[in-house]
Design a protein that fits this description.
Two copies of one chain form a homodimer. By secondary structure, chain A is of the alpha+beta class. Chain A is 35% helix and 27% strand. Strand 5 of chain A pairs antiparallel with strand 5 of chain B, so a sheet runs across the interface.
Chain lengths: 481, 481
Amino acid sequence: MSKPSHEGMAAKKKENFDDWYTQVILKAELADYSPVSGCMVLRPSGYAIWEGIQTATDAEFKKAGISNTYFPIFIPERLLKKEAEHVQGFAPEVAWVTQAGNSDLEERLAIRPTSETLMYEVVSKWIRSWRDLPMRLNQWNNVVRWEFRHPTPFLRTREFLWNEGHSLFATREEADAERDEILGIYKKVTEQFMAIPGYLGRKSKSETFAGAEATYSIEHLLPDGKAIQGPDWHSDGQNFSKAFDITFIDQKGGKDHAWQNTWALTTREIGVMLAIHSDDRGAVVPPKLAAVQVVFVPIVNDESKEAVLAEARKLAAELAGRFRVFFDDRDHLTPGRKFNEWELKGVPVRVEFGPRDMKEGQAVLVRRDNGGKRTVKLASLPDEVGKELETIQDSLFQRASEELSKNTRDATTLAELKEILSQHGGMIRVPWCGKAECEAKMKEETGGKILNVPLGQGRRKGRCPVCSEEAGSIALFGKSY
Amino acid sequence: MSKPSHEGMAAKKKENFDDWYTQVILKAELADYSPVSGCMVLRPSGYAIWEGIQTATDAEFKKAGISNTYFPIFIPERLLKKEAEHVQGFAPEVAWVTQAGNSDLEERLAIRPTSETLMYEVVSKWIRSWRDLPMRLNQWNNVVRWEFRHPTPFLRTREFLWNEGHSLFATREEADAERDEILGIYKKVTEQFMAIPGYLGRKSKSETFAGAEATYSIEHLLPDGKAIQGPDWHSDGQNFSKAFDITFIDQKGGKDHAWQNTWALTTREIGVMLAIHSDDRGAVVPPKLAAVQVVFVPIVNDESKEAVLAEARKLAAELAGRFRVFFDDRDHLTPGRKFNEWELKGVPVRVEFGPRDMKEGQAVLVRRDNGGKRTVKLASLPDEVGKELETIQDSLFQRASEELSKNTRDATTLAELKEILSQHGGMIRVPWCGKAECEAKMKEETGGKILNVPLGQGRRKGRCPVCSEEAGSIALFGKSY
């Protein structure tokens, strides 16, 4: 057990989101600052969330036939430069190794900001014929992007953890067909585990990943009205396979370049999740990802201490067979102090059990998300705790979805767009003709940007608020984190 | 599926161990070289072994109450220098980041060769009182040690993956008591999963980890007669807690420094495992860690093709409910070619199933480790495959243990030590008085070194071969990788 937090929350979510967010992360002991500016420490409760996300996502990857691998963290400078757009996108943020021991290296080595260039140089040697395709590889690793903007735990850090998926196909059709599978996995993990909703759509050209032909993303909404990008999937076409000479003999005996995609989900997503669910009493963590799902607090007085503790221990042990349980019998803290601590840390369900409960054959369940309290019979305690955890999981997603709907508005003119953005923030649906200059104008006029063009919207009516031409689609617009 | 290996093994294990080992790793597609000298790529089958080791080890860590965390990969130079012996041990091998984007950094950042200094700077702020102890943290991450010796996949690479455990206790007694628990976990994982035996003991002072008071290791024997160090556990005493000011208020209200240990198991261990079990036909991977445990090869002729394939598919699907199965129905390869490929890759059990087997209601099981073949009834196929996998797992450990015993010899004089070492290599038990100068003399005279002083040997008789004084213990001596 790490030490109890001696101080509770001070900032309010609605009044000062930035301070509130940082307090939640630090006081709930999910992450901490480090001596390296912009790099954070994931503490046990924070890392446990990442382990939960990894486990859920990785199981889906494995079902899809994707294999995990590990490639070196270093990328020689000459390789990073092989795909022109890609290096332009990343060069300003690359951390460079130039010395080893007492020697200067002959060539600078980039700490991977992403592994395309290194991986493809190697993978090109593994592929000979169409029989070697598809090849779908993934890495769970650390990457470094030396950003100079203000760092925030989880949301913007110079080093972060992620999955980077890289797949190669024999045809464009097969490559494209991967999109819905991967984004479906990300949608499932974000919705069903992290309990956060989002809009899935295609990024505009100007927001497309460096070196990719198309980028699709899930866009979330933070409580301060800013949008933030979640997991993404990129269609690279043959850009990299041409730069790295990834060729194969096709079924007719000809030579062709592979079609490639990449996709990622990062530890940033943990920050989004915590920002959305947490409240002024501290962290709220969805039950499926909480390091501790149930805290059992025995409430004792001097006469009944031994008997209550013995029974409580038995009950907690039974719960521990089904859930991640912490039995809090620390005797130097009052129950109230314990309640505050576990609320701050975001444990989804608290079980209270005292002398009177023992007499009545009951226990009290308290929900972290809404403070709801109810008494349950001991015989059905494990089942009731299970139900409570499911209810909390569902209700967090429900509430976040309602919040997102409520904060998604429509605009048809630039003036409307500007007004909604400055008054409410949030997500704004706006018709868009698809032209880069109209996108640039909207951005310039409002300070927001096109987040993505949501999928599955069919053919909508409307006119581009800039050029007044008929808009092929509705774009999702907002201020982005 | 990655491409079939078009070339089999050429080198022989007994004739040219180094070439043979590299061929096994590369041709079985377990790992590959990378464009960064000394850094390797873990291919899917190789990484799957690491995932298996991680899963087994991590489950034991969690049972022991150890929490996973993630700390930054960068260590500011001033921090790395805070513990004098520690920095001396690592400085010659540190990779330094000196630039980010287009800027020079004000202070060089080390890529972690190990995380003591960074972690303890942070952890010192998490600990206030004895109630915060013990604190037992672990990381599964990548580290970099820029060695200039000849790199070998898994066995010696500049970047490698590992677990680094770091624990803090209120008393020396509690800290010391952790030793057997952690080494017990490593012993279990190496013996029961990797099927490799080793000698557990305490390193001499000259071989102790930089900054530690004592180092304990498991020492393995490679087939070329060289010893190689496996997982280790270090008692750091209060060295780091004094350098990093990790203090706590003890139960009496006084201030004390924490007692610390660290422990690690690395991807090197995969190389040791493969070197010990594999043979001249390629890799041999213990069933518990094999990416594919069972390859099912239907054997078809023109008349019976559809019927055999349909039945084979059904059988393989049933097996897949219990084991990691690959159903090899590729029709451009002959069965013989497939057998060779899967033997090269080290899949523990092959199931052959042809028209005649179908008629007889049977299948043929072939063991990778010894080529043993037997026919089993289809009704009991899953059970028989399960038994076969267990038998192989046990027999690999059995054989490796016999090999280790056979190659462990006794010496009582320097001349004997020298002779055994040059004639046989292997492990040599030799009495040792405990003095550093006698250790140095043995090393100088023979080219070998003291690997460790095995635990649990009681008080042995014997005299140090150098000084002729009574030896307190028997040391394990050998040429080390």
